[in-house]
Write a structure and sequence with these properties.
The complex is a heterodimer. Chain A is an all-alpha fold. Chain A contains 18 helices and 1 strand. In chain A, helix 9 packs across helix 17, helix 11 packs parallel to helix 18 and helix 14 packs antiparallel against helix 15. The longest helix of chain A has 32 residues. Chain A is globular. By secondary structure, chain B is an alpha/beta fold. Helix content of chain B is 32%, strand content 24%. In chain B, helix 6 runs parallel beside helix 12 and helix 9 packs across helix 10. The longest helix of chain B is centred in the first third of the chain and has 20 residues. Chain B is globular. In chain B, 41% of the residues are buried. Classes of the chains: A mainly alpha, B alpha/beta. At the A-B interface, strand 1 and helix 3 of A face helix 10, strand 19 and strand 22 of B.
Amino acid sequence: MSKIDPSFAEEIKKYGAEDFKACFNCGNCTAICQLSEKDASFPRMMVRYGMLGLKNEILKSKEPWLCYSCGDCSETCPRQADPGHYMAALRKYIIARQEPSGITRLLFTSNPFAIVFTLLLAVALGFFLFTLKPGLPVSRWLFTWMPFSVIHDLGMIIFIFTGFMIVSGIFNMTRNLKKGPETSSKKKISAWKAFQCVISEMATMKRYQNCDTEEDSFWKGKPFCLKPWFVHWSIMWGFIGLLFATILDFLFKDPSTSIWWPSRVLGTLTGILLVYGTSLALYYRIVRITKTYSETRLADWTFLGFLWIAGITGFWLELAVTFSAANNLNLVVFTIHTIISMELVLLFAFSKFAHAVYRPLALYYYFHSNESGN
Amino acid sequence: MEEPTEKKRIGVYICHCGGNISDYVDVGQLREMMESEENVVISKDVMFACADSNQKQMVKDIQEMKLDGIVVASCSPKLHLHTFRNVASRAGLNPYNYVQVNVREQCSWAHSDQPEQASYKAAGLIRAGIHRVVYSEALENIRISTQKSVLIIGAGVAGMKSALDLAHMGDEVYLIEKEPQPGGLVAGKGKVFPTGEKGSELVERLLAEIKKSGKIKLFTSASIEKISGSIGNFRSTIKTGDENPETLTLTTGAIMVATGAEPYTPAENEYGYHTVPGVITLTEFDELLKSCSAELKYAGKPVKSVSFIYCTGMRQSQGEHKYCSRICCTAAIHSSLVMHEKFGDVRAFHFYRDIRTYGKQEILFEKSSKSGDIYFMFQEKDPPVIEQGKNNIRIRVKDLLTRKTDLEIESDLVVLVTGMVPRRDSETVAQKLKIPVGNDRFFNEIHPKLRPVETVIDGVFLGGSCQGPRNISESVQSSSSAAAKIHAIIRKDTLELEPIVARINEEECTWCEKCAKVCEYDAIFQIETNGKIVASVNEAVCKGCGACTPVCPTNAINIALYTDEGIEGMIDGFIQQVQLKAAAKGEKAEEETAPSVEMKDFPQIWKSIMEEVREKPQTIPAIAAALSQPMELVTYHVMTMNRYFILEPAGIDDNDEYYLYKLKNKA
């Protein structure tokens, strides 16, 4: 016996789902969705849970993470209940609920808080950066009222806190997904096979490619490199590539050496991918190219914007390093690049970025309990 | 009415029906045979009797050859009786001197496997027709004078509005109401959809107009004692007033029944009604909405959430009310919206089986969902369970929309959305007026689509929700339409009725009363003529059903057009010996070369059609295109082959436009 909670609709509204109450449960959205299946039926079922306020059912569901927001459902909805954006709002809600400190909830639901918090963090990171170059006047002034060790320890605490939040988010998510309903199909595939499926999905975006295949879809017939799945693919692999390149750089070489160094080559190539993907994604959102891209919330703008700035400044710095042009402007760019990149990393558990872990996790449980995974 | 004289100059036309008849019935031989019948002066066989050219020829024949009776042997009289009656009229012959014989449905189609026997039967039927026309009379429509006044029973919105309509057209109206106040169910309503006007305001406005019109006499606290008479002249005895009852008799040309319906009263403990505090009906809830001002309160307690249970007492697969009351979904949603508007933040939960907010009312449903009302769907076999909770009412439901999850909802008030049921006193009204009542106990019209406001009793019309559940505008639509129908009848001084009625032979009649007792329409009464008491027929009421004829011991009753001589003549004609030449096969083939080319084509086109559909099913347009034949021709033949079980439908084409046909499997 489940108790309903009608006030939940107001809560989910804060995450960006305005119209879903208009739903009259016709199920057209589920029918049109290329990814919805017998054992993973959405968006209608998710909308229903939202209307009734069955929060536990939502947290247990893999379905929000199986959706790539193609927008077919919203196009089809006879009541303009916009199930597509509702699914996006649900993902934000789930990210906020898995993170125990409550910061994420505030970041997603209060724009003033998000702006102030991000700016303050940027300033703090700026100061932190200056401490790495103790020769600068700013650094000397800073040390007069805050010793280096305090700054250092504070930084460590923040990193530990962030790391803890990421770990507990993953822990909560896993626990919730495990509580999810047992699927009707008896044949489970092995954990190893499910893991392979997740990797394969990340590498090929095969499921995402199934989206937007309707005859009258805007993307039908457009070159693959402009399609949303490819944009997503290039941002994802761009970022992963850069992450590896940075780690390799950090471990094996001084960043100021040759541009042909293998890790540098990797960084350049994946950097191009990242900038390409984020530029297109931002462009699509700015011109509102389809209904899916028509509603962008602050959390979406900051996440995409930060990735884009990090990419652009990264290239600037690469050029500056190649031509050995050390001047104040390049120093400012370097500062921006570092602050933005640090914000992305620090806010991982508190932003849309967390989907990079939650989606594969949900996919894993989806494949693991589903014979159609392969 | 003239004394019947035997007809001596009869014309007989036998129709081929383009092969439908002539492929099986030997039309040629029958034509020859009828030529030699007594009294027949002309006998013809024609390709299509109903064709314009043949109709013209018939008119010419009747006039030139001075025919006094005609027989057409063709299809069912359902199809062309009036066509040929009109032919007779145009030629100056009384239409009742025409007889139609059905040799298609009753002969060629029914006995296509035994064509020879079909011909024998056709011969008998045609002879019977000839004998019948010999005794046919020239009948004239019955004319009766009419009163230019109307009695309307029930002064709800339907009755009041139609009273105004009739008054505006200049008719005298007597509007009678059982209750002390007019207005019916609407008088008690608050704001109504879609105007937002209050029900009481609506009634007041109508009442003011009624008073102003000067042609409407309104009687309240009135009841009907007795109704007699018939269309044009109904006599109704009315009792008015409670304290000093007065009886008066009204004579009116027509009667409109607008007695309305009443809301269903839930059974004791149905969804906790009368057993769980806070369970009320929609009518009671509407009253509550009207009476509360600042805050919604029930029994002194503030109401923060309301649950509506739809279809209460309606759509019962095992109960009395099988129908959908169709107005209640909208009524409940409307009340819920009125509640939001007046009292702000009160939650509404709707437990429904199906939402039927048809037409513009759909907007209300959408508005309600958008305002955050939550809908739960249940099945008849799993109704919501209502229980008394600690501080409120607990409702448990297996929600169909959430994979039948068991849900628990707490609510301060439960509103049973009850439908409309026939009034408890509707039986009495029905008995007094003799109007038929359906299984659902609502009054029945003649035909729900084509004659929706007329009853089988001429001059008695229906309006509003006495016919079934209706909202205000639908009630007014039907009663206004009945008003128009009524006015069309009573505006003329006289009206014409079909002459097929019972007739009394006063010399033979001994007034044994047997006929009056069997008459379902009370059309027979006693009169005194020449010092003798005999039966007499009210021609305006008699339907010509014939129930009285067989019970008459002295054989004094005859039904016009179905006289004893006529019927006996038909039997004589039918049992005569029929001599048909056995149609040798070669001979028949020779005959087929005769008059028309199309005749010969029929078997050929059938073969072609069969070839077309042999491989795979085809649509009619595809066959027509393949054979380069007009679509009408192909349609005709495919339909005929379908009827003959040569072809059968095989689904519909990809565009959902035309049926596919294939050869019927002879298993």
